[in-house]
Amino acid sequence: MSFLEAVRSALLTLRSQKLRTVLTLFGMVWGTASVVFLMSWGLGVQQLLEEGFNRAGKNFVQVWAGKIGEDFTPAVDRRLLWFTRDDVAALRAQSRYADLVLGESRDWMPVASRQKMLTRDVRGIEPELFEMRDVEMAAGRPLSRVDLALRRRVAVVVYSKKMIGAEP
Questions:
Q1: Residue 70: pLDDT band by 50, 70, 90 thresholds?
Q2: 60 and 131 in contact (C-beta within 8 Å)?
Q3: Contact 159, 141 (CB under 8 A)
Q4: Could you give the C-alpha distances from 8 to 11, 18, 65, 85, 164, in angstroms and in order?
């Protein structure tokens, strides 16, 4: 059987089996579209996660204080652990692989401006956090080590509708 005869035979079979031909073509198109859709969706989710991690900081590890049992189980008689500045200093001194070890405190507190008072996320940070998290200042200046040494009362206000979901 020559190539030309094989093509004629295939076309004759396709014409005589129209429903089977249409269903096969539909399956091929549907399968291909599904694979393309799932791959692009997966790549989009991967990119979104990577952007989120990059915003938090590259090669970044966070450790929070909290409640813990003596044997590290979720026991009822857990005690509350808090990190102190001395703990952060000890981590900084003993860390072999970290380039930067920083402390950050966080609490929801009332913040007032003019006649409005709202509860907002308020953080106490170290100056290097701006560099670690790649924060760009729109105006003013970031916190400095001199501010900490002189115990200045400095506030850096970060406003983003996306972050807090409300008008200022």
A1: low
A2: no
A3: no
A4: 5, 16, 75, 83, 68
